[in-house]
Amino acid sequence: MEGLASLSATIMLFSLLMYLMLDGTDLGVGMLFFWIKAEEPRRRMAHSILPIWDANETWLVLLAGGMLALFPGIYARVLSLLYIPVFMMLLSLVLRAMALEYRSSASARIRALLDVILPLASGLAAFSQGACAGTMVSRFLLNNPASWFDIFPVLCGLGLMSIYLLLGCGWIRWRIGEAVEKQAGHLSGYFFILCCLLCLAVMLLEPLPWRLGWQYTAGKTLSLIILLLLLVLVILLRRGRGLLQLIATLAFMTAIVLLLATGFYGLSANNLMSLTDMGSSKTTQSVVLIGSAVIIPLTLAYHTWVFWVFRGKVL
């Protein structure tokens, strides 16, 4: 049973990472509408994510459905504690979708309104996701629905927004190029500094997950990788390599999530949180894992095909 629970947790972690990497980039592009005001770059930015944003949210559906089926105890505890930020996130994602889909066919006045909704909704969705993560890390065992608005979850929300903005800058530098290169390069530097400061504040305010992760070889390795990726990002930001900046930022975010997952493994190993106790029955987990073995490769194949078809620069 413990092996099934660990495998189920790995599947959930993979779905989470895929969502953060794919839709996080889209949300970052949406938030950049706050800073990029010209219509032509905005049109190209919106068109660069139009073919992929809805498929990216597939991973959020897989994550939520899988959590309900595989870990109903965790699902119930998280939803009872985080129903406010989860509702904010879902509403924001709907508004983001509306702004993206209707922008190209709207009148000038409606388009101006949608261009306000898009960055606001993208930013609120990103903040809500970070606040949920911060609440789970710092207050997983509490039952206060307002705990997500404490200082630590708020900093986590702002930190995730800064990472998404870095992803968005890398994306538009790669997919759009000269029209936004200079402005996106300057913004990348500011967001990188903000990201580093917020990550440092988060680690100082809540050191337990990082300290538990440090007990394992994987945690030490991931910590070193994070430091190396920060150095790589400094170099890439100076050289203006959009695609490489995007890849390095994705790797940086992935390493942070994996380090947190290592810390959660430490919580489980120290009997502070048991995946087995919160998991569903062996039969249920087996059926869901078999289904995941079919659905996940198909979803990955579809994503690969879409990215290949729309791999060029947006004109």
Can you describe this structure in just a few lines?
InterPro entries: Cyt-d_oxidase_su2 (IPR003317). The chain has 315 residues and is mainly alpha-helical. The protein contains 14 helices and no strands.
Report on the architecture of this protein.
The chain is an all-alpha fold. It has a single domain (2-309), classed as Formate dehydrogenase/DMSO reductase fold. The protein contains 14 helices and no strands. It has helices spanning 2-31, 39-49, 53-56, 58-70, 72-81, 83-103, 108-138, 151-175, 178-205, 208-214, 217-239, 242-269, 275-278, 282-309. The mean pLDDT is 89. This is Cytochrome d ubiquinol oxidase subunit II. One of its GO terms (biological process) is aerobic electron transport chain. It is a multi-pass membrane protein. Keywords: Cell membrane, Membrane, Transmembrane, Transmembrane helix.
